[in-house]
Structures are given as structure tokens and as C-alpha cells.
Design a protein that fits this description.
The chain has one domain. The chain has helices at 64-68, 92-105; strands at 2-4, 15-19, 25-30, 40-48, 51-60, 83-88, 111-115. The longest helix has 14 residues, at 92-105. It is α+β, with helices and mostly antiparallel strands. Helices cover 16% and strands 38% of the residues. It has a seven-stranded mixed sheet.
Length: 116
């Protein structure tokens, strides 16, 4: 389940809520400016037919590596309007558990990245 207030690229909301397989809701915030060296989970989402769709779900020891490595933007499936959302998780056990819950619960057809 994906909930977001995103309607158009000009009206992007600052967060997106995603449900894992456990039913737990995870709030991701829009990545703006520089990213933290802290580890966390991230998703790239896009609008398709009026719905918010997760196109990439990942985790990283340092979220800076997500931008520096251009994780999603270098993938052939990426589109210019895909939006990056992050969730800080310094503890690797929390980051890993949330990542596994998300990839098990989100509708399929997205890329999974694990940068640990």
C-alpha cells in the first residue's frame, strides 16, 4: 500500500507512507539538498495513471552513497521525474528488518538495491 499526497510534479508532498508485509507503516521523507552520511532506507517513486508507484526500494549504510553512486538514475528503468524519498536508520538491524518487510509487502515490479 502506498499513500502519498503527490498529484503532479509541481505539487510533490514532503512524505510518502509505505506498508510492509507486517502491516507496519513506514514514513519516507522527500530527499532535498544533501543527504545524510547516516544509513537508511530509500525508495524512488513515480506517478503512473494517477497512482504513486515504487520503482526502486533500497537500503544503504550511508545515504550519501545513494546520490554519489547515482543508484537509481543509472538504471535503465529510471525516468527523470522519479522522486527520491528516504528514511534514516542508523542501526543496521532496524534498516535490514524494515527493508525486508517493505520488499515483501510492496506490489512487485521494482528494483531492489542493498548497499551494505
Amino acid at each position: 500500500m502506498v499513500r502519498s499526497g503527490m498529484q503532479q510534479r509541481d505539487d510533490v508532498k514532503p512524505f510518502v507512507d509505505l506498508a510492509g508485509a507486517s502491516g507496519e507503516m513506514y514514513r519516507f521523507r522527500r530527499a532535498e539538498g544533501g543527504l545524510s552520511p547516516i544509513g537508511g532506507n530509500f525508495v524512488y517513486v513515480r506517478e503512473e495513471a494517477g497512482e504513486t508507484k515504487v520503482v526502486c526500494c533500497g537500503k544503504a549504510r550511508s545515504l550519501v552513497s545513494v546520490l554519489m553512486g547515482r543508484v537509481w538514475t543509472s538504471d535503465e528503468s529510471a525516468q527523470p521525474d522519479d522522486a527520491l524519498y528516504i528514511r534514516l536508520n542508523a542501526a543496521s538491524s532496524t534498516r535490514n528488518a524494515e527493508h525486508e518487510d517493505l520488499i515483501a509487502g510492496l506490489p512487485r515490479q521494482f528494483v531492489i538495491y542493498e548497499m551494505e
